[in-house]
Amino acid sequence: MTTRSTTLVLGALALTLSACAANGPRGPSDTVIERALRGAPGEAQPSTIVSTEIAYARAAREKGFVDAARDFAASGALIHGRNGVVPFDAVAPALERANIQIQWGPRVVVKSCDGSLALSQGRFVDGEGMVGNYVTVWARQDDNSYRWTYDNAGLDDPQPSPRMQAEEGDIIVTAMNMVRGLVATCPRNGESVPPPPPIPAGESGDSAVQVSRDGTLRWRWEHRDGDNGDSVKYVTADYWFEGEWVTAIEESLASADEG
To answer: What is the pTM for the complete model shown?
Structure first.
């Protein structure tokens, strides 16, 4: 089992986003996904989350976001919306009526040593070409598949400037993205992982925290009141790495109009 932080050179697995991406992010072929998975050692494989994210995004294109979300959701999955964290089942009808169009792709995946818990952080683009960040929590099921348990997304504010349209004869160079895979260090025989640092008091509002079964990954969400009467959806994740706790993900996401 890998116990070190790994930068996964999965450029073909990364989904490149831009403010003018009218057709949504591009995805890799199934052959590329299978090849990446074969080369990833141990049960705590960040590539399994990347593969699941890609399959989820593909299903959203083919059958709609809400139906795809149902297919990939764990029992009791939660959505962090503008009014706080609510069960996905409670807001699914409203999302369905809104005909949500969205595509996304991970940039960072962090996993507990035992692979039971993971978070992905990445970028998304909606049907109008608006872009933003998201964080999704994934839990391994009894059949070793992963299902999402918590989802949080927010639009960039301000939005990036639109990219200039290419003219005939222009040479376009696309940079290869990478998905950064972070895996917690496994405790040695007889060793125990010390508890993570105390959680600072939240600014306001509700919050919750979860620790992986093996104690090597902790994440939490907070629903904070903003300065202008709006709300901020905060999420962070820390993992045990080579003898210390390290912050892997920290996002403060503005609440979108939907959700």
So the answer is: 0.80
